[in-house]
Amino acid sequence: MRSPLCDAFGIDHPIFAFTPSEHVAAAVSRAGGLGVLGCVRFNDTDELERTLGWLDDNTDGKPYGVDVVMPMKVPTEGTSVDLQAMIPPEHLSFVERTLQQLGVPPLPEGEGRAGVLGWLHSVARSHVDVALAHRPVLIANALGSPPLDVIEKAHEHGVKVAALAGAAKHALSHVANGVDVIVAQGYEAGGHTGEIASMVLTPEIVDAVGPDVPVLGAGGIGSGRQIAASMALGAQGVWTGSIWLGTEEYQNLQSNEGWTEAFTRATSSDTVRTRIYTGKPARLLKTRWTEAWAADDAPEPLPMPLQNLLVAEAHNRINASGDPDVISMPIGQIVGRMNEVRPVAEVMADLVSGFADAVARLDKLRA
Amino acid sequence: MRSPLCDAFGIDHPIFAFTPSEHVAAAVSRAGGLGVLGCVRFNDTDELERTLGWLDDNTDGKPYGVDVVMPMKVPTEGTSVDLQAMIPPEHLSFVERTLQQLGVPPLPEGEGRAGVLGWLHSVARSHVDVALAHRPVLIANALGSPPLDVIEKAHEHGVKVAALAGAAKHALSHVANGVDVIVAQGYEAGGHTGEIASMVLTPEIVDAVGPDVPVLGAGGIGSGRQIAASMALGAQGVWTGSIWLGTEEYQNLQSNEGWTEAFTRATSSDTVRTRIYTGKPARLLKTRWTEAWAADDAPEPLPMPLQNLLVAEAHNRINASGDPDVISMPIGQIVGRMNEVRPVAEVMADLVSGFADAVARLDKLRA
């Protein structure tokens, strides 16, 4: 498939793949899509520096992008220690009590790490600075428009900026801020998401921003049929995420057996949209952990960035325990179709041929 | 556009239009789609008899369908009076108090009617009996499989049966029961709906039931682009509902200015999925009425059919008052694009030409 985005980004297929794994990102880019490395997990900028260096060397010269998490409005900030002090004791005791009830053991002595500091504005800014010293073609921001000076800096480096939008009015505001590509993030998507489903959201955003602003359809896309549907709705390409968790290359990052078992057996009904991951609504796999937070005795989630600091160590403990019934995993409704682990190149080939098949089938339905 | 459904039902376009208005249904059928008359509003079978007679005479010999609301499992039933006695006093007082707070006056002396008895199993059965004496080509059931003897009776009359499904497992069970056509009702749809969005639900159901069972995509469909998207996902046709409220022919049924103002100004964010209409989750326009039920002091909605009996007179009062801020209206997320009132034939022509445009555009995106 071809769209104007192919020329704009130097890619063969307008398939954008968000992933926390540099191995997946590199494999997608090598296969003709655009791998987009999620930076939020890098507390250590040196590690991000090394990882981007690895990407530079392992994409056969093909383009790649990076994804940061940066609210336009600077939120409550401070050192990790200051922020910890803002977390109410009842929240801390709920988390500890729940982990005990779910049978999640403490981390082994000496293991564990601080909360994911990438949710902090200052850390996200350092991600941008590190990335711009490499050769990304795109900086995507998972929380809408990044601050204006970040957009300007990216443009000075010849790097395009993408932003997620869950409503047409947000997309319009991103465009006014100078954002180049809108990711129309439908209700069915994993991670941060709004309430409007892709079938309605994508054409609304396409019409709102007009023909000069490319829109990527996001949410529920795991097959060539879904890419064809998204592009029938007016998208120039697609933004994918969940499906790359089910690839062999991803296993290099997250070798936890529990994750693979959890998403392999889940149906499309087994996700939930909740504020417990970051403080903003995000879709996660439905597990005993998300259900505990939905119970009557659970506290209200805290605002960003406090909620992620509250649950970060808990997530480390849960994921280290490997219990697929408790796992904490952002994932979209497409999880129901993620039933095996395959190489990235095979998934890409299926997306491309599935798109061609769907368009050929539609052609036959023309009167 | 053509699909095997066109031959199966004798229609030009595989566009199925659910509507409570015989005027809309007739106009859709005359324009080459399949108008499907919602029967739930007919408490009086004589009125349904007369209305179907009118349809027989006003569709230029073109086919039409009917839609009933019939749980497979017979629910709590009895006379209207018995059921009223099962409604807790706190629910009645909440409704009365809320109407007063929202400034909704009582109905004028002598006006008003009983609850919508079409939600009752026995009444829905009488709808089927009345319909089968006319010439519908389809009986659709808004609540999944109808009882087996109803399916058999329809088949004996050469009438096909359709059932709504919000998950693949429900679709499989409908097929096992003998249902002929599955309506894949996505999260974004108006009225009764599940949690899985069309982008994920439609291909799941298509793959689950296999190529011999036609699937109609439903939810969020108001343009030819969306029809193309739904058919790219594997649907053989589409099931539409909300968009027909915005037609001139509909105004014959519901002349309430408040409705038109309410849906014309609403955005796609202005709906809510709630149990307050019938006891089962259904998407409604978000108004001060739905918000009152979402407040902390509101009681839990009652199970079907009690909830509709509880709120039926309230809905009559609200709709008679014509206040667009309070209106009680099942509608899908596509409401954001319903911004003018047009003739049915014009809407149909746009759907058909929009489909052709979308497929032509997709063709150009093939490599």
From TrEMBL, chains A, B:
InterPro entries: Aldolase_TIM, NMO
Gene3D superfamilies xrefs: Aldolase class I
SUPFAM superfamilies given in the database record: Inosine monophosphate dehydrogenase (IMPDH)
UniProt xrefs under PANTHER family: 2-NITROPROPANE DIOXYGENASE, MONOOXYGENASE RV1533-RELATED
GO molecular function, one term: monooxygenase activity
Identification of the protein by name: Nitronate monooxygenase family protein
Coiled-coil spans in chain: none
UniProt keyword list: Flavoprotein, FMN, Monooxygenase, Oxidoreductase
Transmembrane segments: none
